[in-house]
Structure formats: C-alpha cells, structure tokens
Write a structure and sequence with these properties.
heterodimer, A: 412 residues, alpha/beta, D-Maltodextrin-Binding Protein, domain 2, 5-stranded mixed β-sheet, 4-stranded mixed β-sheet, 21 helices, globular, B: 297 residues, mainly alpha, MetI-like fold
C-alpha cells in the first residue's frame, strides 16, 4: 500500500512540475542597484516580472558602483558565462559587445510593442539601436546634474537655504561655523567627475558642454570659461574637505541628517530621501544644474540580454524586455528609484516637485547627451582618475585644467 | 633486467616525467603562452576586445606619462621595501621571543599565525574599522582623554600607505614567524652549548651565529613575501579602493581597471607586461645566481 501511495505522490509531483520546467526559466539579472531606494525599485521590477510571466527572477546584485560591477559583467559575457539579463547605462558601454554579436536582437519585441511610438525621448531607443536592430530595453531616465540641499542644515547655520552654487559658496563660512559640512562629496572617481560635468553644464551651459565634450572644440577647451570652472572646482574641493566620505549614499545620508548642506548627485539620490521619509520642498531642496543652467542629460539604465544557448532563457529574456516597457513596471520602478519613466504616455500627476521639474526640463527639450554617449570608457576613466587625484591632493586648478584638455583631445 | 642497447634518455625515469607532464603543459601553455599573447597585444590598440592592430610603443608611452601609473609604481616600491624588511624583522623577533621556552607557546603561536588564516578582503575590512576615525583607534585614544589626538591615515593621502603596510604586515608576519621558529628549532643544540661555554651573550649568538645559519629559511620567506607584494591588489580594494584620490593605487589595480573598467585592453596589457618585466628582473638574476653556485659546488 505504502509503495503505491508513494508512487502516486511522485507522479503527482511530476505532473505539477512538468509545465513549469518545460516553459519557465530562471533568469539571472545582474545590476548594481544596491542602495536602499535602488533595491526597493528592483524588487518592484522582479515582482511584476514574476507576476506577469511564468519565469522566475534570480537576483544578481553586484555591490559597489557601476565601475565595480561593469568589469564583472563584461568579463562574464566575453568569458562565455552570460547572465540572463544585465544592466548597463545608456550609451557606448555595451556597444562593442553588440558589435561582437554577444547581445540578443530584440527588434521583434520592440516592433510588436510599438517602442518607437511610446519611448520619449526617442534618442533612448536610438542608443539601443545598432545598424537598424534593437539590442536593449531602456528602463529609466537619470540625470546627474542636480544639487541637493538640506534645509535643516541651513536653518541651523542661520542662513537662507542656497538655491545656486554662488549662494552655497557665500553661505559656506556660516555653515562651517555651525559645524556643518558645506559640500558632501564622495571621494570615488565617478562622483568627483560627476561634480565636474555638472559644473561644466551648469556654469558653462548646454552649448559649452557640447563644445567641450562632443565637438572637443579647441577654443572652448582653452577658454576662460573652462579655466574659471576649474577654479570653482578647486573651491568645491575646499567646501568638501573634512567630509571623509566615499560612497554616494553615505554622502546623501549626511544631507538627510542635516550634518552637511549640499551634495551634487544624480536624481537617484531621491530614492534615498524617499526611503528616509523626507519630502521635497520641506526637508530638502533640488536644483538642476547647481541652480545655474537648467539642462539635464537623459542618461539612465537599459537592460541588455546576452545571447544564450538555452531556448527557455531566450524566451524569458523576451518576456522581461516586454515587462520593462510595460506601464505598470515603468510607474512602480521609477517611483521607487526617483528616476523618470522612459515612456511619454504615462500620467505622472502624483510625482513630487523635483521629478516635476525634471519632467518639465525634459519636455522643454533642455537636454544634453550623457558623458557615456560622447566619451569612450577609456577617456571617461582617465577623467575620473584625474578628478579623484585632484580631490585627494593639492593639485592646482591650472594643472588639472591642462591635463583635462589633454585627455579630451587625445580622444580619437 | 638485461637491456638491449643503451638506454634512451627521454624514457629514463619515465613515470616521473609522465606525472610532471600536466604541469609542464600548463606552464608552457598557460604561463608562457598566455604571457606571450599578452605581450604581443600590448603593442596593439585593443579596446574592449583584443585586436591585432599594431601601434608600436604608443601604449607604453601613454602608460609612463600617466600620473596614476607613476603613483602606483611609487606606492609599490615603498610598500615592497617596507613590507619586506619589516615582515622579516618582526617575524624573526617574534620567533626568537617564542623560542625562549615560554609558557603557553602553543597559544601565542596560534594568535600570531591567526591573521594569516584571514583573506586580504577580511583583513582590509577589519583595518578599515580599526582606522575609522569615528569608531576606531582615534576615537579610543580621544576617549582616554587625549582630545587633540588625530590619526586618520585612511583619509590622509600622505599616510594612507602606512595603513596598507600595517594591515599587510599584520596579516603576513605570522607566517614568517612560524617558518622562522621552525628554522630556529632546526639549529643543533650543540651550537648553543658551544656558545654558552665560550660565554657569548644570547643576543650575539642569535645575531652572528644563528642568523647566518638560517639563510635558506630567510630565502623561503623572501620569496613568499615578495610574491605577496607584487600581486598586492585585494587589500587595496578592500581597505582604500585606491583612495583618497589616487594616493594608494597599485599596479595590479591599474591593470584590472584599464582592462575591464575603462575597456582599454591594450593599456592594461602594457601595464601587466611592465609588471611581468619587473618580476623577471628580480627572478632571472636570482635564478642565475643559484645555478652558478650549484655548478661550483
């Protein structure tokens, strides 16, 4: 008797398991979304993916920032151990992988779902397109040109909250007096470089930014405007001294606590504010372009799908690509992360004033290309090294400017 | 047992040769083959994927004009010399102290060797906490009443190399101690008796008699420590990530960052070729010296 019932049990298990194993796949998704707000956003995406499809999401979070995670991802893909899907930023980061035929062609999914009609700005889809074929699914829009301020820190120092870079400089002595760090700046290369890019677009303006990075114009590179920006950059180094910060979210945390006055960081910082229960306008302020020129770069994240030999995985990859561009995922993911959705047809009445400001800038077309679109990883890495060295030493603004020009000019 | 004709040299002692074959093959293909491949590609302008598009010495010219590489080399030289000398000195001193027939020797030996059981990643994290100004050493000393005390090497570009050294030596000195202790125990008891009869003080015996007798032990330690110095990477990543700024960068990290992070294989290969050249510059004279000496004996 017992034998039969055991056999029945096994048969029952086998029957219930069969449809699952025939169709569903475990899709490993690698990304570097590890801070509180980011992790909350990725959980939303995983939840929707598992609800809408029969596949399961295997989370492959890689701690550290993109510069830590990207090498691991690239070496896995070119080493023949591809993951199911992986995050990259919009731009040239994955272009060579696409050229080498290591990425899944998503053109059918894109055409079936009308990506070209819904994605706004359409340049994001162009960034995914190579020789007329689509190779990635844009997920969100991030802009790095933001200055975040802690209103309570300014109140404690008894000065008006700064809304521009100039006002922050003016308030710095009073802030120092009150024991508040004027500028919270993580000392990692990508963060120090982010500040420099923000100053170039915020102080110099969109045209100047394009002249420097896209056209690599000799005159702009040697102009007084750029020299002046490097002088301001040296002032930023003074405002940040004594901070001893490394990770960006530790720096954002200083703003949340009110022990530092301002941080120049991308809008992903909003995820941290939201997680800490802070409200835009009453707890923290946001100023595009450091309160100068309101232009933003429409960078962000896209999901790439490495070519895989397993048909079930390929199936799951297409399903995920479809989910990423669905309205539900766009709203849930971007609300948690503080980023802007890539679809132009989504109602965002409920977003806060910072996101609203970002959307308005986007609508007005005040956009610049991200650094990934105009510079190779090689040059970007060198600029990051230069800015990290600058913040960790007493390198003069003149020398930093000269070396910056050299790096930009040696590109191509 | 009778053999026809003279023995063929290649087949002499064949089981040993067969057993060594996989390792010989690995050495030829992996070590020599891949090194040659890397050297060849260091003369190309390969970006993310290797390409045979030769550009001569351009990658090397760029490498040696990059401040970060210069800082890396400087750091490795400072770290290397200090780590080698201090690890040997501390290791020998601790071994001599342990050799004094003290009580609980097993316990001390375990404590001293224990850091070696930790990976460099763990070591880095441990020292990050020890040196953190808000929780670690500085906080404790200030808590004892010295409120002006300031010691924050992790955020001071001039002192950060000390933090690396402290962590590296803390991790590596234990192994040196144990090897040296074994060496000391291997010294014939009669040597000690003779020196005592002659009335030579113990420290002089150690310095002038025992130390020269331990040359092979020192050679082993030097090789082990040097290998650890050249490949220094994980400790830096865990402890400082090359910072503050670029003050604690090392060559191995440059290679990794350029090959994968900055997607410039050519530049990374040029840097790794320089590292290979540095290792060969140390090993070849050493090997020649050893071979020359063997022939004379």
């Amino acid at each position: 008797m017992q034998k039969i019932s055991m056999r029945r049990l096994l048969a029952g298990v086998a029957v219930t398991m069969l449809p699952a194993t025939a169709m569903a796949a475990d899709l490993e998704v690698t990304h570097w979304w590890t801070s509180g707000g980011e992790a909350a956003a990725v959980q939303e995406l995983a939840r929707i993916f598992e609800e809408q499809t029969e596949h399961s999401w295997v989370d492959g979070a890689i701690a550290g920032s993109g510069s830590t995670a990207r090498p691991i991802m690239v070496s896995r893909i070119i080493g023949g151990d591809p993951m199911g899907a992986t995050q990259f930023n919009h731009g040239l980061q994955a272009q060579e992988l696409v050229e080498a035929g290591l990425m899944q062609d998503l053109t059918e999914v894109a055409e079936a779902n009308g990506w070209r009609d819904t994605i706004n700005p359409v340049s994001l889809l162009d960034a995914c397109t190579f020789e007329g074929r689509v190779y990635c699914a844009p997920l969100n829009i991030h802009s790095p040109q933001w200055m975040w301020t802690s209103l309570s820190a300014f109140e404690k120092a008894g000065v008006e909250p700064a809304t521009t870079w100039e006002e922050l400089k003016a308030a710095a002595p009073a802030l120092r007096e009150a024991g508040i760090l004027p500028l919270a700046q993580g000392m990692q290369g990508w963060q120090t470089a982010l500040l420099l890019y923000g100053m170039i677009s915020g102080i110099g303006g969109a045209d100047f930014y394009n002249q420097v990075f896209a056209e690599r114009d000799e005159e702009a590179l040697n102009s007084d405007t750029l020299k002046n920006i490097f002088a301001e950059y040296a002032i930023a180094r003074n405002l940040a001294s004594g901070g001893n910060l490394s990770d960006w979210n530790m720096a954002t945390n200083r703003i949340i606590e009110g022990t530092a006055a301002a941080q120049v960081m991308g809008d992903w910082a909003q995820g941290e504010f939201a997680l800490a229960g802070k409200t835009a306008g009453t707890d923290y302020g946001c100023h595009i372009g450091l309160g100068g020129e309101p232009v933003i770069a429409t960078g962000g994240d896209a999901i790439y799908f490495p070519v895989n030999s397993d048909a079930a995985v390929t199936e799951a990859q297409r399903a995920l690509a479809q989910v990423i561009l669905s309205e539900e995922a766009q709203v849930a993911f971007n609300a948690a992360k503080g980023s802007l959705p890539v679809r132009g047809d989504i109602d965002l009445a409920s977003v806060n004033e910072c996101t609203q400001a970002g959307l308005e800038t986007l609508k007005a077309g005040n956009t610049i290309p991200t650094i990934d679109l105009v510079m190779s990883s090689d040059s970007r890495g060198q600029i990051e090294d230069l800015t990290a060295e600058f913040f960790g030493s007493d390198l003069s603004a003149e020398d930093a400017h000269a070396r910056f020009v050299q790096i930009v000019q040696s590109e191509m | 047992m009778a053999r026809s004709g003279p023995p063929i040299r290649l087949l002499q002692n064949w089981p040993a040769k067969l057993a060594a074959a996989p390792m010989i093959l690995t050495a030829l293909v992996v070590f020599i083959g891949c090194s040659l491949w890397t050297v060849v590609h260091s003369f190309t302008n390969s970006r993310l994927l290797p390409r045979l598009d030769f550009v001569g010495l351009a990658q090397y010219e760029r490498l040696w004009s990059t401040p970060r590489w210069q800082v890396s080399i400087e750091n490795l030289a400072i770290y290397g010399i200090c780590a080698l000398v201090l690890t040997l000195a501390i290791g020998f001193l601790l071994a001599v102290l342990l050799d004094q027939k003290i009580r609980f020797e097993d316990g001390f030996r375990t404590i001293i060797l224990f850091p070696y059981a930790l990976s460099f990643i763990v070591t880095g994290v441990v020292w990050q906490w020890i040196l953190n100004p808000d929780f670690g050493l500085q906080h404790i000393v200030r808590g004892m009443g010295f409120s002006g005390f300031s010691f924050d090497p992790l955020n001071d570009p001039n002192l950060v190399i000390l933090a690396l050294l402290a962590a590296g030596i803390w991790q590596g000195a234990g192994l040196t101690t144990v090897i040296m202790l074994a060496g000391l125990r291997g010294i014939d008891e009669d040597v000690w008796k003779a020196s005592r009869v002659d009335g030579i003080p113990a420290w002089k015996t150690y310095l002038f008699i025992i130390l020269p007798m331990m040359k092979p032990v020192f050679a082993t330690c030097v090789v082990l420590i040097s290998a650890g110095i050249i490949k220094l990477y994980d400790l830096v990543v865990a402890l400082t990530r090359g910072g503050p700024g670029i003050a604690s960068e090392v060559p191995a990290k440059y290679v990794y960052d350029y090959m994968f992070g900055n997607q410039n294989l050519g530049q990374g290969f040029a840097a790794s070729t320089m590292m290979l050249a540095a290792v060969l510059a140390i090993i070849i004279p050493f090997a020649l010296f050893r071979m020359g000496r063997k022939r004379h004996v």
